[in-house]
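Task 17 of the worksheet. Students: predict the tertiary structure of the chain below and write it out as C-alpha cells. Keep your answer in the requested format; marks are given for formatting as well as content.
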Amino acid sequence: MSQMQALFFEAHGGVDNLRFGERPKPEPGAGEVRVRLRSAALNHLDLFVLGGIPGITIELPHIGGADGAGTVDTLGPGVEGIEIGSEVVFDPGLSCGHCEFCLKGEHSLCVRYGILGEHRDGTFAEYVIVPAASLAPKPAHLSWEEAAAFPLTYLTAWRMLIARGGLAPGESVLIHGIGGGVSVACLQLAQHVGARTIVTSRSREKLDRALEMGADEAIPAGDNVAREVRRLTGKRGVDVVVDSVGKATWMQSIRSAAKGGRIVTCGATTGPDPAEEIRLIFWNQLSIIGSTMGSREDWRRVVAAVNAWQLKPVVDTVIRMEEGRRAYQRMESAEQLGKIVLAVGA
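Model answer:
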C-alpha cells in the first residue's frame, strides 16, 4: 500500500501526542473522490478530537482536520462529471443521504451525521477522501490558504445567522469572542446582510482589529457586556446573539437580547453547563436556537455568497504541516484572529 505524509495521533491527550509521518494513502469508495490537498485549516474541534470527546469513539491512529482545499486526484466507483485535476473545496459534513432528515434536505440533522476529521480521517494529510456530492469549485479569488479557511466556519456562520437565526437587514447582532473563525465569519456575513454588529473579546488588539474590519462596536468581554449592549442600543438589546462560548457568556447573552430576540449557539468552548435564568427567557419571549454545521443547500448558498460577495476569510497564520504541533499550540492559546492554516503541499 502506498504511503502519504500526515499529522496524526495514536492516543488522545495534548499536543505532545501529535506525530508527523507516514500513513497509508486512502482509496475512495463508491460515490467518493480522493483530493490531493494544498492547504488545510484548524478549528477548535481539532483540539477536542485530540483530547478525546466523551461518547465518541475514534479509531486510532487518527488524522484530524475538517477543512481543506486541493485538486481532485482519483474518482471512486460511480462518480461522474468531475474532472481529475479540478481545484476544489468541500463541505466537511458527512451524512447518510437516506434517513428522513437527509431526504428533507436537512443533512446536518442526519441520524448518522459526522464531521471530517472527527468521525473519519481528515485533512491534515497529503490526501483525503470526501463524498463527491460535497465538492464545489474553489472560488477563483481566494488563495489556497483562504480557500481552506472558509468551509466549516462560513457554513456554520451561515446556518446560525441566516438559516436558523433569520438575521435581516437593519437588525442588530452581538457576536461573542471575536477572533475565532466562526465569529469572524459571522461578522462578515452580518455586515453583508446590513445588520449592526457588536463584538466582544478579552483582547484589546482583537477588538481593535474587529473595528478595522468594520464592526460597529467592540466591547471588552466580561460581566459588563450586557450593560454595555443595553447602553449602546438605548436599553433595547440586540435582535440576535451569536454564542459559541457557552458557560462564560451565556447569562450575558440572555441579558443582552431584546424582547423577542434570538440567541443562536453552535458550541460551548468554555463549558456546556452555564447558569440559566428561565424567567428572562419566557418573560422576554426569547428564542434559544441550536445550530450545527449546515445542509448541502446551505453549503451551496455559502459558496455562492463567497463568490458573489467576494468574501475573503481572515487568515491568522500559515504553518507547514510538519510543524503542526505549533499550529495546535497557537489554537490552544487562543492568540489567533482568523484561521490557522497548514500548508500541505506545493
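Marker's comment: The chain has a mean pLDDT of 95. The domain at 3-152+294-343 is CATH 3.90.180.10 (Quinone Oxidoreductase; Chain A, domain 1).
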